Amino acid sequence: xxxxxxxxxxxxxxxxxxxxPCNHSTISGNEYVYWYRQIHSQGPQYIIHGxxxxxxxxxxxxxxxxxxxxxxxxxxxxxxxDTAVYYCIVRGGNTGGFKTIFxxxxxxxxxx
Amino acid sequence: xxGVTQTPKxxxxxxxxxxxxxxxxxxxHNYMYWYRQDPGMGLKLIYYSVGAGITDKGExxxxxxxxxxxxxxxxxxxxxxxxxxxxxYFCASSQLGQNNSxxxxxxxxxxxxx
Lengths: 112, 114
Prior knowledge:
The structure holds two protein chains of two kinds.
Chain A: E1 9-13, E2 18-23, E3 31-38, E4 45-50, E5 55-56, E6 61-64, E7 70-75, E8 84-92, E9 106-111
Parallel strand pairs in A: 1-9
Antiparallel strand pairs in A: 2-7, 3-4, 3-8, 5-6, 6-7, 8-9
Chain B: E1 4-7, E2 10-13, E3 19-25, E4 31-37, E5 43-51, E6 54-57, E7 64-66, E8 76-78, E9 87-94, E10 104-105, E11 109-113
Parallel strand pairs in B: 2-11
Antiparallel strand pairs in B: 1-3, 3-8, 4-5, 4-9, 5-6, 7-8, 9-10, 9-11
């Protein structure tokens, strides 16, 4: 599985957009980009995923560059409850995605 | 659906004791995973399974064993507990062979070995 690189921490003002970057320069053609978040000590929660195209759901938007070597998770109007650790992972490929590896993630602090 | 259920929520073990962390899912997922998370760190994959009767090692398998006799259950066994195994353990599942299938996580088991 491809490795991802994320900044260790970021700040965001409440009500503003939070843009969380992720580098995955070794991603292969059939690997998806997934984003999860972990609030406090709870189990990680799925946010969004994509292959090539930009994606949007009720929680967030995912922007994937044309070369697929990086992506950005966008929380359009961050709230205090969005303070969490955000994990970007790549998954899929020839292995079918079963050996899913997590990195250290980005700790997002949303401030009032 | 209850999703992924882990028991117990908390446990304290003495060094050398053994225990089994239980994980069950009711979504008929074929893939199941065990992760551990040390304080302030990310998740490390211990073992995973692609279906009943099939298991394989992840990043940090030493000191653990797993079995997968049914699609629903994926217990994690610690035979000789050590302080280094103090951690939060998460079980997860996903659908077989679908690259667009996200992982569903349980709420974790917090284990302390003293």
